[in-house]
Amino acid sequence: MDPCIVCGTEIDLDAARSTTGQTTHGADEVDPNAGTRSFYNGEWYYFCGLQCRNNFLAAPANYVS
Amino acid sequence: MDFAYTTEQENLRQEVQAFISENVTEEIRTEIEQFGSRQNRGSLTSGLYKKISDMGWIGISWPKEYGGQGGSRIDQYIVEEEFSRIGVQVGGAGSGAPAILAAGTEEQKKYFLPGMISGDISFALGFTEPQGGADLAGLQCRAVRDGDDFVINGQKMYTTAAHYATHVYLMARTDPDAPKHKGISIFLIPMDTPGITVRPLWTIQNEPKAPHKTTYGDDRTNETFFENVRIPASAMLGEENQGWYVGAMGLNLDRVGASRYLLSVRRDEDIINWTKENSLGNYQLTDDPSVTDRLADLWIDGQVCRLMTLRSMSMVERGETFTYEGSAEKIWAPEHGVRTTESVSQMLGLYGQLLNGSEDNIEDGVFAHNLMGAFQSGINHGSVQVMKDQVSRRGLGLPRG
Question: Which ipTM value was assigned to this complex?
Answer without folding.
Answer: 0.90
